[in-house]
Amino acid sequence: MSALAIGLAASAALTLLTAPLGPPVPASDVGSDVTTTARAMPAAPAPAAPVRPAVTAEPGAFGPGAVTETAGAGLCTAGFVLTAGDRTFLAQAAHCGGTGDETETDGCTSAAVPLGTPVTVRGAGRTVTGTLAWSSWNTMQARGETDPDTCAYNDLALVGLPPGAESSAGAAVPFFGGPGPVRSTPLSPGTPVFGLANPPGADGTRTVTPRAGAIAGDVGGGWGHSVYTMEPGVAGESGSPLLDGEGRAVGILSSLSTTADRPSIEYTDLGRALDYAARTDGPPGLTPVAGPAFTSTPAGVDPRELTTPAGPGIAG
After folding, report:
1. Domain total in the chain
2. Where in this protein does the record put region Disordered (predicted)?
3. Alpha helix (H) residue ranges in the chain
């Protein structure tokens, strides 16, 4: 990239049938002295298909905007809720598990915590410990990925919620509603988009607020989208969701970029990241959970907070 990408993870030090039928009787043991019944042994039942968790479309204790802290790595913001089989996940940026400097944004070479690492999830009035279940960074490094755009912008990880918390997950994006389906068509410069900010207060407490912006252009050959906003992004917002003007899921916040004309926020394209997970070793059947109806003018939000800037596009 021509821009200096700065990862937004804030550094933080953090402290699951059948009964066997038994061995067959050898033929040599069955003779005239052995009496058998004519009862056929029942066939082993087929394993039941996993039951997809009943994640509510409405707000829940755990969903977009929750704070995630990966042990030994960083503090981030949860994006979309996803399910696969009988498991429920929160999306965050893969670099939230990075252990190097905040400028190390190449997922193919940057050090990262292993899968299974504990992740503290601070939701609405409740905190649980999940696990890092999948990460594009770990997968790319294991597979020897070398494409520079993929390495730079494929920035998706999944935090598995513990069984007791899955029923408390909610898909709704605060303020705006949604998400709808994953967007699969290009975004033209100037297209309005909507997301979340999660800045820290004076005491370090995070407060989710609405964010609006305008597409500046694609980056990484379409792997990412650069967005202009009135207020800059801050450390700890990585992973937060981005929606288009119809509420479709566009991406998750990956980095800040400083350009010659204006700073911008870069988001990993969710469709591409999910496709990569499906083509490699991601959880089979991984699907974002749909939220409620979307609005670009949420009640109780001052329209001035959703002002979108104008600015030149950035070549991808």
Report:
1. 1
2. 278-316
3. 136-143, 148-153, 163-166, 270-279
Phi, psi at 135, each rounded to 5°: -150, 130
Phi, psi of 280 (to 5 degrees): -115, -110
β-strands 157-160, 127-135 pairing: antiparallel
CB 255 within 8 A of CB 74: no
Task: Examine residue 94 and state whether it is found in any structural domain, yes or no.
Answer: yes
> Between vectors from CA 222 to CA 115 and to CA 109, what angle results, nearest 5°?
35
Mean pLDDT, 10 residues at a time, over the chain (316 residues)? 48 38 45 40 50 80 97 96 97 96 91 98 96 98 97 98 93 98 96 94 88 94 94 91 98 82 88 98 97 96 87 45
Instruction: At 260, list the tokens.
Output: 């010659």
Q: What is the CATH number of the domain that holds 89?
A: 2.40.10.120
Helix axes 136-143, 270-279, angle to 10 degrees: 50
Range of the domain at 76: 53-306
| Domain membership flag for residue 41 | no
Provide φ and ψ at 29, rounded to 5°: -90, -10
Q: How many CA atoms lie within 13 A of 93 on its CB side?
A: 39
Q: Where are the beta strands (DSSP E) in 55-96?
A: 67-70, 74-77, 81-84, 87-92
The DSSP code sequence of 262-285 is --EEEEEEHHHHHHHHHHTTSPTT
Residue type, 248: R
